[in-house]
Fold these 3 entries.
Entry 1:
Amino acid sequence: MDPFARLFGMGGGGNLRGSDSQSTLHVELEDVYKGTQRSVVLGKQKVCTKCKGTGASRGSGVTTCSHCRGHGVVIQRLQLGPGMYQDIQQACPHCQGQGRIAKHRCPACNGKKVVRGEVTLTIDIEQGIPEGHKVTFEMESDESPDLVPGDLIMTVLTKPHPRFSRRPNGLDLDMSLTVTLKEALLGFERRVEHLDGTEFLVEATGVTPYGKVLKVRGKGMPRHHMPSEKGDLYVKVMFELPSFLTEAQRKEIEEHF
């Protein structure tokens, strides 16, 4: 058996698989609420189509590297002490770890066998997908002529929203609502625009303390895979105090309070 194959596991059959790659997609909270489809363009390494991954110009061909016998690695023996040695594997400096040497390099990839390119992927943003949800695109990682491409794993993250925030349970939402002092004292009804453009009612009767949280049932995020079921919305009520009072207003407050 070839000693290189024995040392580096090159004697078995089957195709070696490349490593997986990671990517992140940032989406709007509206996308997660309504569900949508996004197309993304990503850079990736591709096998050179000019030389079909040989690294050689057309008609020139390639030869097996005589230094590493086509394995792409060589063994360097280091002496650690009297009678003590250590074998270290390193990429072959003559073929740059390729195992083969092109007689004349491909002008498109300069003999590297691969070039930088782009890939367009379509991803379904399902209603209510959890924060950090991962979508796997099989065999869409970097290409190499000697490896089966690994997978591209895309993590979906939500951008901060100016009005709504998602609770850690993924179902409930929070928002703040500013009302007038009069509304805080006497009660109010407010129509609020939701993430899908529809409106819902937030109401309170009597005195509403500053910071009170009102629960609006069924106005949270849709449950993933069960979009007809929704969480709740929690509305924190705030109000602004006047910067000054007239003398008449001051007297009226003193009379009633």
Entry 2:
Amino acid sequence: MIVWESLENQRPAAWRIVFKGLTLLEHLIKNGSERCVDDARNHGHTLRALGQFNYYEGTIDRGQGVREKSKQVIEMLSDDDRIREERQKARK
């Protein structure tokens, strides 16, 4: 799946690609099939690794958004009730 390729591309200068991949994954978890949720859970190791993502442009921490988004996705995946709530919100 292309999403996983973008997330596994942990080349720091590609932080935008990784962040957009996480945003897409979050959307798929909320709006996609149950298979998207299962697939995301199976790739938990990749998501956890992104919690250590670092990239600085000068003094600006560009990796912070990636770390925060990966944390949000991991927290959502660990709570079935939250996924259910997010899916209901997305349907409205």
Entry 3:
Amino acid sequence: MNIVNLEQYNQKDYSIGVSMWQQLLWYFLGSPLVQSYWLPWSGIKVAILRCFGAEIGSQVRIKPGVRIKFPWRLKVGDHVWIGENAWLDNLALIEIADHVCISQAVYLCTGNHDWSSPQFDLRVAPIVIEDSAWIAAQSVVGPGVTIGQGAVLSLGSVACQSLTALTIWSGNPAQPIKPRNLQLVDNPDQQMTGQQMTTSLAREVYIPS
């Protein structure tokens, strides 16, 4: 007797959210253009994504090879970088705030399966990435995770839980390593720690160039 019977798997409780024609148009036209290496201009890719329902701010850079499952479940703020071969597997909403860097080959996974179900039922949950966070190359962010403001998920790490603000996280599963101290834009000699940011909301923090 099988412990898991994939013949009984179905997605009857899951809605893709658009018509079949919109899905096909995205799969065969929109997605290949956004992923393409011969179309390097971010502005054109952003325009295509907006046509398919994505909400995207200004000055967003999308590198070649970026895969986006469903653009109609994507919200991106201003001044966001998405690196080569990043995969936004957004069966549920992925929301990316301002000044976020998503590096090469990052995997944002909003879908999972119920391991206790013989039918291997689908489970989805949104991902939220707050202002000034950095998801380093080849990292993975799981369903239902919030990456706090200014947090860093280091190279090749896996976030299975939400990450606190202005903290550097590393490992599988990711663990807090140390606070992230950010210089204030108007005074490079000053720094703001995670604790200071929590208690002082009067100033906005950015990653220094």
